[in-house]
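Notes from the 1:1 (GR / supervisor)

We went over the backlog. Supervisor wanted to see one worked example end to end before approving the batch request, so GR pasted a single chain during the call. The sequence is below; no edits were made to it. Supervisor asked that the structure be written out right there so they could see what the output format looks like.
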Amino acid sequence: QVQLVESGGGLVQAGGSLRLSCAASGRTFRRYAMGWFRQAPGKEREFVATISWSGGSTYYTNSVKGRFTISRDNAKNTVYLQMNSLKPEDTAVYYCAARQGAAGTGGNEYDYWGQGTQVTVSS
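Structure output shown during the call:
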């Protein structure tokens, strides 16, 4: 069992930056791949970024490539999402997720989810 808690969300102007954190507890000795997803009001949850347990492999959705960076610090049991050059379209609740296996882009592939943190980007 893995518990995930996101933090770092907030209100930021377009062009600004935020860094989200996801702290994991429980069976963190397992080699979980991690992912970030987001959901805007009235829309389905969408994939944002994923990272392998070692941090050696990452993958991003096209809309955030070059702006967002996913990373992890296994010693701290924490995964991060650095978000730069934020746009109003990035406004959403951002969720951290974990799966025991390879990094994946589908939400149904993940076993554990955090409660989410709100990111709002103003014009």
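Supervisor's comment: Residues 8 and 108 are 25 Å apart (CA to CA).
Batch request approved.
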